[in-house]
Amino acid sequence: MRKSSSIAILFFLLILGAGIGLALIMYGGALNAGGIGIGIGALVLALLVLNAIKIADQWERALVLRLGKFRELKGPGLFFIIPIIDSVPYWIDTRVITASFKAEKTLTKDTVPVDVDAVLFWKVIDPQKAVLNVADYQSAISWASQTALRDVIGKTQLSEMLEGREKLGKELQRIIDERTEPWGINVISVEVKDVLIPPGLENAMSMQAQAERERQARVILGDSERQVAEKFVMAGETYAEHPVAFHLRAMNMLYEGLKQNATIVVVPSTAVESMQLGNVSGIIALTKQLQQEAAKKQKEIEDERRKVA
Q1: pLDDT tens digit string along 49-72?
Q2: Which residue has better confidence, 270 or 89?
Q3: Are 174 and 124 in contact (CB under 8 A)?
Q4: What pTM was computed for the model?
Q5: Would you give the end-to-end CA distance of the chain in angstroms?
Q6: CATH no. of 97-197
Q7: Where are the beta strands (DSSP E) in 57-163?
Q8: All structural domains of the chain with their residue ranges
Q9: CA dihedral angle for residue 115, residue 121, residue 127, residue 132, rounded to 10 degrees
Q10: Residue 54: helix, strand or coil by DSSP?
């Protein structure tokens, strides 16, 4: 039962005070039938005014019944009813309301028990239907949401449920909205918060995902090897047609390796002959010369450090 508004209470006190004041003026302080009658009359009038004045907030609608029959919807703001004849049994909130619901140990289409938590966003768009067509529309929405969730879970594979929560929410929204439309209620959206699966199945799915990632990594590595081999084949065909380019490339690779590492690179004599790099003594001489140049540069760097120090 809604409490009386502050304005109605104010009028109640004013009328009651005016009646008591009138009784005191007319009969003084004497206790007699006339004074008591005025006081009782003022009290009855004040109570009638208290019950006649109603105020609905901006988001509320009041359903008015006259002698048990639907009269009209009132609000928002100030309105009046006829006491005793009219009544306001329901105050309907027209704002968006959230309600959480869940389904526990429900089997999916592939017979996997899951626990699903979801949130429903809904609002009353027709207060008259919400009150007259269903006894308790909030409880009805709760039960309709739970049964719809169980129906959808039973028709969905576990993999689809885990990968497509948004799709699952839209399907739930459609089903619940169809069920609640005759009650004057609009389902705005349904959000699936969490899908819980048995721990044993969760470990198995984790191992399966890890194996799948390893398989993809090996496939990518094999594809990379194939691409590298194709490039080598193309390079070999190019060098076969241009032996001078092959000779220059071999010399450059050997020179860069000796220059950066400043060490001796052991090259088989057969490789020397195939790359046309000259005899082995020439390679050794080239290596020694590069080593001497590297040692000289290192010595110059150390001398400069000593001067700075």
Answers
A1: 999 999 999 999 999 999 989 999
A2: 89
A3: no
A4: 0.62
A5: 93
A6: 3.30.479.30
A7: 60-66, 69-74, 77-80, 86-93, 97-107, 113-124
A8: 6-90, 97-197, 200-240, 242-303
A9: -10
A10: strand
